[in-house]
TrEMBL record:
Residues annotated with N6-(pyridoxal phosphate)lysine modification: K212
Keyword Nucleotidyltransferase: no
Keywords from the named record: Aminotransferase, Pyridoxal phosphate, Transferase
Needed cofactors: pyridoxal 5'-phosphate
Native source species: Natronoglycomyces albus
Main EC class the enzyme belongs to: lyase
Reaction(s) catalysed by this chain's protein: L-homocysteine + H2O = 2-oxobutanoate + hydrogen sulfide + NH4(+) + H(+); L-methionine + H2O = methanethiol + 2-oxobutanoate + NH4(+)
Record EC number: 4.4.1.2
Name of the protein in question: homocysteine desulfhydrase
One example GO MF annotation: transaminase activity
Any GO CC annotation of this UniProt entry: cytoplasm
Amino acid sequence: MTQPHSPASFATRAVHAGRDDLTELGVHVAPIDLSTTYPAADSAAEAMRMDEFAAGAQPAGSPIYARLHNPTVARFESALAELENAEASVAFASGMAAMTACLLAASQGNQKTHVVAVRPVYGGTDLLLNSGLLGTNVTWVDADKVAAAIQPDTGLVIVETPANPTLTELDLAQVAHACGDVPLLVDNTVATPVLQRPLEHGASIVLHSATKSLGGYGDVVGGIVACSETFARGLRSVRIATGGILHPLAGYMLLRGLATLPIRVRHASENAHELALRLQADERVAHVYYPGLNADRPGTNQMSGGGSLVSFETVDDAKDVVLGVNLITPAVSLGSVDTLIQHPASLTHHVVNSDDRAACGISDKLLRLSVGLEDVDDLWADLDQAL
Ligand SMILES: *Cc1c(COP(=O)(O)O)cnc(C)c1O
C-alpha cells in the first residue's frame, strides 16, 4: 500500500515551489521571459481571452501582453502563495503598489471606501491611508477597538504584526474575530511566512514588501499579496488597469530569494535575539523592543521566532549611534543579508505626524536595527563602540 502523499515541509517547499515543471521543460533553474508582447493570430479567440484577463482570470495560452501576465512572475506568485498557505498571490512593482491595489480592489464597485487601521504601520502605508489619495478614508484605532470602529462601508481592516518599528504584536485570531465579515489585511513583511502565516490565524489578505526579506539581498524592489482566488482576481484587474507590474527579472530574483528565506530568516532572528539580550543588559540603553523578549505577549504560538528587527531607545542622543557605526550600514529598509540601522522618527516614519508618532511609541530616542547574517560578536562590537 502506498502512503498518502504528505505535504512537504516549509523548507522543502521554499526550495521547490514555483519550479514543479522545470524537469519537464528540461531546465534546472527558472527561465526568464522578457517578452513584452506575444504572437496572437486568432483575433476572435484573443478577444475572449482579453476579457478573461481584464476580469482577473489567468487563461491558458499566450499572455498577449506583458502587463496582463508574465510566466516568470507567475512562478514567484505560486511559490509565495504556497508558503503563505494561500489560494493565490499577486505580485506588484513594490510593496506600496501592492497596498494601493488592495485598497482599490477592496473599495471599487461596492462603495466600501472606509478602512480601519491600527498604528503603527509602515510610514508609507500611514501616509497613503491618511492622504485619502485613493478615495478611502481611515479610522485609526487601538487593536481592542477594531469591532467598534467597523461601519457598513468598511471594506478593509489593516494591521501589521510585529509592527514596524516598535515591534508591537497583535493577537491575529482576536483581531480577525473582531473584523467579522470585513477582510483583515496583515502586512507580514517583518515576520515573513517563515515565522508567521496570518491566514492560519483568520486573516484574509497577507501583504509583503518583497523588497525586504523575501528578496533578502537588498537588490530588488517588489510587493506581493497572498489571498483567496476571488480577491486575487480583483487585484489582477487593478494591476492590469493601473500598470503596477513586477518586472520579470525581479520576479526571477524574488523566486531565487525564497529558496534561502528559511535559513536567512532563522539565522538573522537568532542574531537579533542575542543582540536584543545584550542591549537589554546595557546601561546605555533605556528600552529594548523585541518580540518575545518580555514574557507577556499576545497571540502566543502565532510567531515561531522573534524576527530580524530589534528596536531600542538610547539614554543619550540616538542619532549619534547612527553616526558612530562602522560595520553596520546606516540605512532604511530591512531584511537584507547585512545589518542596517536607522532613526525612524527622521526616516521611515518621518511622514507620520509627530503627535501620532509619539502616541504609537515612536520616540525621538528610538533606533531600529535590521539584523543580518554577520557574526553576532562583530555586530555587538560595532554597536558597543557606537553606543
Ligand atoms: C518597506 C515596507 C513597505 C513598503 O514596501 P516598498 O517595497 O518599499 O514599496 C510596506 N510595509 C512594510 C512593513 C515595509 O517595511
